[in-house]
Amino acid sequence: MTYGCSTFIRLPINFIYLPLFLFTMQGSERHMTYAGAGVDIDRLDEIKSGIIKKGLTYRRRGFGAPMGDVGHYAGLIDMGLFALAMTTDGVGTKLIIADAMKKWDTVGIDCVAMNVNDLYTMGVEPLAFVDYISIERPDDELIRQVMIGLNEGARQANISIIGGETAALPDIIKGFDLAGTCVGYVEKDKVVTGESIEAGDVVIGLPSSGVHSNGYSLVRKVIKEAGLKYTDPLPYDSSTTIGEELLKPTRIYAEVVPIFKKYRVKGMAHITGGGLLNLRRITKYGFDFNDPLPVPPIFTWLQKLGGIEDTEMYRTFNMGMGYVIITDKDNAGAIVKMTDGKIVGRIVEEGCVIRGIRLW
C-alpha cells in the first residue's frame, strides 16, 4: 500500500488582455498557495507518517510477507526470487476539468500513468492493472471515453487491464472519480531504493508533458478567480484552449524500464503532488539543480495569473520535470542518450536548490 524551479510570460497589453493583466497584478499581491486551495501537503504528510503508518501494524508472516516499510512509491511482497510490487493512485480533481469540457478520453491515460510511473521508480516492471470508477449516475459516453484512455495507457505501459469495478454512488459522488491499482515484479536483489545514493552522483531529469495530474485544486482556483473559462483560448497560444492544455495526459515513462535493467540506477523519483519535495522520499541527501530543464509556459502563466511564489510552484508542480534518475558519473552519459532528458544537477550533502530557490 502506498501513499502516495520561474520565468514570466509577457502578455500584450491591449484591450483584449488588459482585464487579464490587471487581474494578474492584483493576484501577485495575494500569493495563492496549494494549502489555500484546500490541499495542505505538509498536513497530509503528517497524517501519512503518523496516523496511517502507526495504524497499519499487522504484517503477514511466511510466504508473501511484505518487504520494507510503508512509505516508498510502491509496496513490495516477498515472492521468493522476486518481489511483487503494488501501488494505487487516482487522477484527482483534474476530472472536474474533464467534466467541464465533456472530454474524458485522456484521463484513463493519467490513471495508468500515476500508477506505473510510481512502480518504475523502484526498478519494477508493471504487469497488470485494475481500475475503479465511482460515478454519480451511469453515463455511457463518459464510460466509453474513459475506457479509450485506459486502453491507450495500458498500450503505452505494456500492461494488461485484467479487471475493474464501476459503482454508482449518487449519495456520495458528484460527477465521477477514477482510480486504479497496478502490480509489477522485480528481482529482489535489483530493487531500486535510493539507499546507495551518495554526494557527487548525477541527476538526470526527464521532461513532463505538462501539468500531469497534480496541483489541480490550485490550478482550478487560479482559473476561477481570474474569471476565465476552460473553453477560453490560452493567452500565449490561441490555437488551443485552457482546458485542452490542462487535460494533456500524464507522460508514461516506460523508456526507463530498459535503462534500469541495463545500467546501475541508484534512485528514481516520479515528480507528482508536492513537486520536488518528492525527492525527499528516496534519499537523505540534497540536490543542486545547476542546469534544470526549461519551465513550460503553462506554469509561468499560472504563476503570474495566481501571484504564486516561486517556492510554492516547486513545492506543488513538476515545473517541466516529471521524472528523475540518479546514477553515478560513469553511467550518466549512456543513460541520457536513451532518453529525451539531460543532466540537470548533482547530489549534494544537504538541501535542495533550483534556479537560486532553496526548497529545503
UniProtKB/TrEMBL annotation:
Keywords: ATP-binding, Cytoplasm, Ligase, Nucleotide-binding, Purine biosynthesis
SUPFAM superfamilies reported in the protein's UniProt record: PurM C-terminal domain-like, PurM N-terminal domain-like
Pfam families, per the entry: AIRS, AIRS_C
Pathway: Purine metabolism; IMP biosynthesis via de novo pathway; 5-amino-1-(5-phospho-D-ribosyl)imidazole from N(2)-formyl-N(1)-(5-phospho-D-ribosyl)glycinamide: step 2/2
Catalytic activity: 2-formamido-N(1)-(5-O-phospho-beta-D-ribosyl)acetamidine + ATP = 5-amino-1-(5-phospho-beta-D-ribosyl)imidazole + ADP + phosphate + H(+)
GO molecular function: ATP binding; phosphoribosylamine-glycine ligase activity; phosphoribosylformylglycinamidine cyclo-ligase activity
Subcellular location: Cytoplasm
Signal sequence extent: none
Residues of the PurM-like C-terminal domain: 198-351
GO terms classed as biological process: 'de novo' IMP biosynthetic process; adenine biosynthetic process
Keyword Transport: no
UniProt EC number: 6.3.3.1
Ranges for domain PurM-like N-terminal: 74-186
Broad class of the protein's primary localization: cytoplasm
Enzyme class: ligase
GO cellular component, one term: cytosol
InterPro entries, per database record: PurM-like_C_dom (IPR010918), PurM-like_C_sf (IPR036676), PurM-like_N (IPR016188), PurM-like_N_sf (IPR036921), PurM_cligase (IPR004733)
Similarity field: Belongs to the AIR synthase family.
HAMAP family: AIRS (MF_00741)
Record's protein name: Phosphoribosylformylglycinamidine cyclo-ligase
